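[job 0412] stage=fold_complex status=start
inputs:
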Amino acid sequence: MTANGKPKFAMYWAAACGGCEIAVLNIHEKILDVDANFEVVFWPVAMDAKYKDVEAMPDQSITLCLLNGAIRNSENQHIAELLRRKAKILVAFGSCACEGGFPALSNLTTVEETLDTAFFSVSTDNPQKVLPQVSFAAAEGELVIPHMYSVVKSLDQVVPVDYYMPGCPPESEQIAAVVELVIKALKGEATLPPAGAVIGAGTSTVCDECKRARNEKKIKGFTRIQDFRPDPALCLLEQGILCNGPATRNGCTARCPTAGVPCIGCYGPTDGARDFGARLMSAVASVIDSNDPQEIERILDGIPDVVGSFYHTNLAGSLLKASKPTWEEEQHAAPHN
Amino acid sequence: MTEKIGVYICHCGSNIAGTVDCPEVSRWAAEALKARGVVVARDYKFMCSSLGQELIEKDIKELGLTRVVVGACSPHLHEPTFRGACGRAGLNPYLCEMVSLREQVSWVHTDKAAATAKAKAVVSGGVERVIHHEPLESLRVPIHPATLIVGGGIAGIQAALEIADSGTPVYLVEREPSIGGHMAQFDKTFPTLDCSACILTPKMVTVGAHPNITMLTYAEVTNVDGFVGNFAVTIRQKPRYVKADLCNGCAVCEEKCPKKVVDEVFEAGLGYRKVIYRPFAQAVPKYPVIDRENCTFFLKGTCKACEKFCPTGAIDFEQKEEIITIQVGNIILATGFDLFDARRIPQFGLGRLPNVFSSLEFERLCNAAGPTNGRVVMRDGVTTPRAVGIVHCVGSRDKHYNNYCSSICCMQSLKFAHLVEERTGATVYNFYIDMRTPAKGYDEFYQRLLEEGVIFIRGRVAEVTDVPQRPEEEGRLVVQVEDTLIGQQRRIPLDMVILSAGLEPRHDAKQVAKMFGISCSADGWYIEKHPKLDPIATMTEGIYIAGVAQGPKDIPASVAQGAAAAARVMGRIQQKEIALEPVRASIDETRCSGCRICNNMCPFNAILYHADKAVSEVNPALCQGCGTCVAACPAGAISGTVFSDQQVLSQLEGLLLRNLQPATV
Amino acid sequence: MKYGYFPGCSLERNAAAYDKSARAVAEPLGMEFVEVEDWNCCGATEYISLNLLASYALSARNLAQAVRTDGLGELVAPCSACYLNLTKCDKSMRESPSLAAKVNEALAAGGLSYKPGSMRVRHLLDVIVNDIGFEALRAKVTRPLTGLKVAPFYGCFVARPGYVQFDDTEFPVTLDRLLQALGAEVVDFPLKAQCCGGHMTQISEGMGLEMIRRLVKTADDRGADLIVTICPMCQLNLDAFQGAMNRHFGLNLHVPVLYFTQMMGLAFGLDQAALGIGSELVSSRAALAAIGATPEGEAGGPPKRVKKDDKALPMPAPLMRA
Amino acid sequence: MTEVFEPVIIGFTCNWCSYRAADLAGIGRMKYPPNIRLIRLMCSGRLDPTFVLKALASGADGVMISGCHPGECHYLEQNYKAMRRYHLLKRMLTQMGVEPGRVKLVWASAAEGARLASEITKMVEEVRALGPLNWPTAGAAAALPEKPAALEVPA
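[job 0412] stage=fold_complex status=done
writing structure:
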C-alpha cells in the first residue's frame, strides 16, 4: 500500500505494435479516472521506469496489470513472469496477448526465414549483410540481447492469466467500461467476473452488431474487396468476401464490416469454440455451393492463404499453434532456450 | 471428480476374451482411471446375460454409480440391453456408454497384446465420454394411423389387404393404370401351374372394393417430407381423361377407339392395345385411361370416338393432372423389378432374330388372355414351333451384367418348358448353368419335367444365330453351346428361342430410394435393416420394403414379405407412439447472432430463421440429429445431444490416453 | 492429333491399299502419323504359338522403337494382327515382371529396353471412332455412301476379351456406326466378329475355304454389295480366295472386300486411285457404281421388316444399332 | 532404431455406414492392424475440423474420416458438407506442414466392411512410413488460481 493509498496500475507492451497502448489513451477523459484511482507504477510507453524498480516491488503489490503483446522472445517471457509475480490481476490485453495476434502468423515460418525476410529482403537496406547476434563481446564486456523464440506464444501459455480482453486493439469504450468496473470493484460496489473470463466483449458474434442484410448462404466463389464493388447493404460473406464476423466474438460494434472491410476476427472465438480457425473453416466450407470435388477445389482457389485468412489473429491460440517445421526448429532450439 | 463410474468388460465367451485379456483391461481401468472417477471395474463371461446385467444393476444401487461404461459387442446389438439395465436400477439410460470390443477389436485383430492395449484405449475413451453424458428422455412421437404402400404388385396388394383388414386406412399408389403388377401378366404360376389371374384377380377386386383402401392408380409419389409417425407425402395423379365417378367400365370406348398401338408395358411389346385402354380385362380400377401421346384427338384435334360412344359421358379431354398430399405414419415400398433387357446381349439375337422371345414376351404368348389367346406360335403369328430352346441365366450370374442369381429363372424356365411341351408337343431344350429348385415342391416339378422328356443341356449358350453351317440348319435358329456334361461344342437347330431374362432393380430405384431416405445395395436393390433378422425394415424409421424391390424372389416369398411388413406396421400403429433416440440439435439464442450459415444446412428444413429476433431455431420435431449444423455453427451456438463437442473431444483425449495422471504418451 | 504409326508387313505388300487409304484419310481428319523407325515384323499369327519369348521380343522391340521414335505414348496399328500382338506383348509384360525381365534381356542385345505400359497400342478404328468421333466424320462427308449396302466385318483379332477395350468383344458395333455415319446402309451381319480362317487355307484348304464361304455367302444372303474390313488378313482371305472358294463349292459369289479407310476416302470425295481402289481382286467397280445412285433419305437405319399379314406379332426394336 | 513405429490413427465413422462397415468387417473376421481407434458420429456431416486438429494436437499420427458414398447419405446430403470441409481442411494442414497422407477421407457404405478394412490397412502403412507426428502439446494453459484474486480495498 502506497503513501497516497491508491492501488497500483501497470501496463506493459510485449511483442505488439503499440496500438493497444494508443487504445488506452483513446479512452479520453476517462484516463483521468485511471490516474485518480490508481497509482501508475510501471508503464514504459507513458513514463520512465526500470525493470529493477519492478523487481524491487513486493509480490502481489500491483493491483491491475494490463499486458499487451505476444510472447516472442526471452525478454517478453521474463517480464511476463515478473509482472505475474507482482500483479494481483493480470489481464491479457489485446489479440496478441490473448491469442498471439499478427506476430503469431510467423509461426508458419522458422526464425531463420523470419530474420532473413527482416534483414536481407528488399524491405531492409543492409549492404554489409549485418545480422544481430544474441550475444556480442564488446570492450565493456559481453552484450546480450533477448533470445528469439521459434514459436510465438500467447500470454497464458507462459503465465496464468486472470482475464482476457481481446481486440486489435480493444475498443476504447470497452476499456473504459472495464476500468470503471475495476474501480467500482475496488470500492466494493461491483464484483469481478470469475477468473479466466473474457471481459470487455460480448457473448455472441460480430454479425449480431452488423447492420448488413443476411440471407441463406451459398458461396460459388471467393473474391476480395479490391476486386469488385461490394453491395454496401448485403452481408460480405454472401458476396464471396471471406469475412470472419460469423465466428468472431462481438463487442467491437462490427466496425470493420460497417466500414466495408471484412472482419479479421480480432476478438477471437466465442465460448462455444475451441479453435477459431477450425470453426470458421467448418462454417465457410459448409456453405460452399457445390458437391463436385473439382469445383470445390476451384472455389477454394479463391483463398490463396488459408491459415492467414482463417487464423488472422489467432494462430498461437489455435490447437496446432505453429507449423510442423517451426515446431521442429523450436524443439531443437529448446535446450539453450 | 464428482462422477462415480462403473466399467464392465464382457468376455463374450471367447469371442472377446480370445484376443483381449479382459481381466487385465478391467484391472487397468480400475487402477489407471480411478482418478477419472472409475470406482468399480468388472469383467464377466457374458455381460448381456441376466446375471451380467444384474451385476451392473447391483453396483448402481449399492455403489451409487452415476455413469456406466460397457465394453462388449457393437452398440448396434446390445446398447438397448444395457441402457435397459441402467434404467431398471434407476439410472438414466443415457448415462450408459457402450464401446465395441468385439466387432472393432477382438474380431479384427490377432495380436493379443496389441488388442488388449487398444481395448484399454477404447474403454478409456468411453469413460471420458460418459462423464459428459447428460440424462435424457427418449422422444415420443405419435404414429399417424394411415399407411402408404407404393407399388400395386402382389407384395403391395398383400400388405394393403392385411393392414386394411386390421381396420386402419391404407393408400395404395400404383404407377400403371391398374394394380396387379407383373403377376397379372403371367398365365400360370410354378410349381402348381395354377392360373395366375384366377388367384390374383380376387385379391385385386377386394382391394378395389375395400372401405379402408384408397387406390391411387396411374399416380406417382413425387415428394416425401417428415419422419416416422408423420410423413407428408405428395402424389402426382396423372390425368386419365376419364371421369372415375361416371365410368361404368363397359369398355365401349375401347372397342370403338380407331387407333391401335403396340402395348410395350402389359403385353411386353408382343401385342396391341387401343389408345384408350385398360391394360387387361380384369383391370382394377375398371375405368380406362387415354394414352395422350398417341390419341388422335390430342395429336390432330379430331376423332373423339370414345366421347361419342360413351354411354355415361365419362370422357373428359379437359382433365388436368392433380397434386395430392397425404399424411401417413408408415410407408411400405413394394416397387418391384424391371426385367433384364435381353437385347443388351446382342449375340442372343433378341430384336435381331424374329423368333427369339424374352421371358415376358413368352408369358404373354402363352397367356390365354394374351395376343394369341395362349397359342404358342412363332413371330409370324401362325406357325407352331417344332423345337424350342430356353436359355437360363440371361443377364444373371454373368459378370458382364449382373453377378447375382435372379432366383426365379430356373423355375420359370421349367414352367415354360412344360407349357411349350403341353401346347405344341415340340421338343424342348433347356440350356442351364446350374439347376436351382430349392423351395417347396420345386424339385418335384423338375423331376416331373425330366419325365416329360424335356431335354436339359448343361452349359452357357455362346450365341443364337440364323447363319446355317449344315443343311439341317437352313432357315432355322441355331444355339451354339458347350455341353459341359459331354464336354463338346454343340449346335442345336431350333425354331424358337426363349431367353429367361433375370430380374433387375427398377430403373429409377436409386431416385426412389433417395426420395424416401433409404439406400440401395451395389446391385441396386433396397437395403434392409438386417439381412437375416430384419429383412423388411430399413435404416430409416417408418420405411419398410417388401417383394422383389428388396431382392429377387418368387411370388410366395413376395406375399410373405408383404404380410410381414404389414404386421410390423400394424404393430407400430397399435403402439400409437414410438420412442426415438433423443439425438437432437438446439440453438442457444443468447449465442446465436443470426449469421444464417446453418439455415441451408438442414435437408429436413428443421432450422428456421426468426427475422424479428435475428436468431435461428431448430424445430426438434423435424430434426433428425445428424449434427451437421452443430459442426457448421461458427459461434458454437448450436449444441447436439449425445454427440456434443465436449463428448467427442473428451472421448478423443481418452482414446489417446491423454487423461492418465500424470499425462503419458 | 499426332500418333506413332506401325504399318506392319502386310501394309507394305498385299494391304498397300490399306496403308495408302489410311494415310489419305488421316490428313483431312487432322491426324498425323509418325512412322516407327526401323520397325520389324510383329510375329504374325503363328509365331506366338511356336516360341513365346521370341515372339514377345519381336513385338517388344517394335514398342521400344516406338518409344524411341516419338514420345507420343500412343501407337496406332492399322493391322489387327499387329494390333493384337503388340497389345498382348505389352499386357503380358505388365502382368509378368519375370517375362518382362527376360524380354528386356533379349532387347538389351540390341541396346534397347521397353518399360511395360509406356506405349498405348491402339487400332486405327479405335482412334478414328473414339478420338475423331462420328460428328467430325459426318462433317467431312462430301459424297455420302447412300444406297450402298455393306457388311461390316471386324474379324476375330479385335474381338478378344481381355485385350480389346474399345468395342464389345461379342458383338462389336463401332464399324457399323462408322459406316452409317458415312451414309452407307449396314446389313445385319451376325458373323461380323468371326474368324476369317487366318492361314487355314495353307493348312487345311477345305476347312479354310468353308470358313470363307460362310462369311461371303452370308454377306451375299444379307444383300451386301460390299464387305468392309479392318484387317489385312481378313481382306486377303475373303478377296484373294473368293475365286478358289467359288470353284471349290461350285458357287458364283462376287462380293468385293474393301478397307473401312477406303470407304471413308470415298465418302470424303477423295480420288479412288489415291485410296488404292482397284487393287482388290474381286472388283468393286460395279458395287461402287451404286454410290449416289439412290436419292438421299432412303438409305440408313435398319431394314424395315414387312409384316407377312395382320397375324404377325410385333417384335422389339434392335438395341445395338446406331 | 530397429523396432517398428506403431502409429495411432483416429477414425471418425458415420453411424449409418462406416461404423456398420466396421461392424461388418468384425462379423466377417476380416483383419486389419490395431492402430486405428474409432469414434462414432451420427453422420460425417457432424465432423467439425476441430476434432481433427484436436486429434493431431493430442498425439494421433493420423486421422481417417469416413462416411457414406456421395449421394447415399442417410441424411440425404450431409456427407457433401463433410467433403467440402475436408477439402478446405486439407489446404490448411498442408500449409501447416502436415503431410497429406495423415488425414484421409474414405467413403464406405454399410456393406463395405472389406473395403474399410483394406483402406485402414493401407492408411496404417502410409502413416507408418511417414513416421511419428508427435505434435508438441506445449503451451497448454497453466493452472489458474482457484478463485479470482481477492481485491484488497484501500482503507
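[job 0412] summary: The interface with chain A takes residues 588, 590-597, 599-601, 614, 628, 631-637, 639, 645, 649 of chain B (CB under 8 Å).
[job 0412] exit 0
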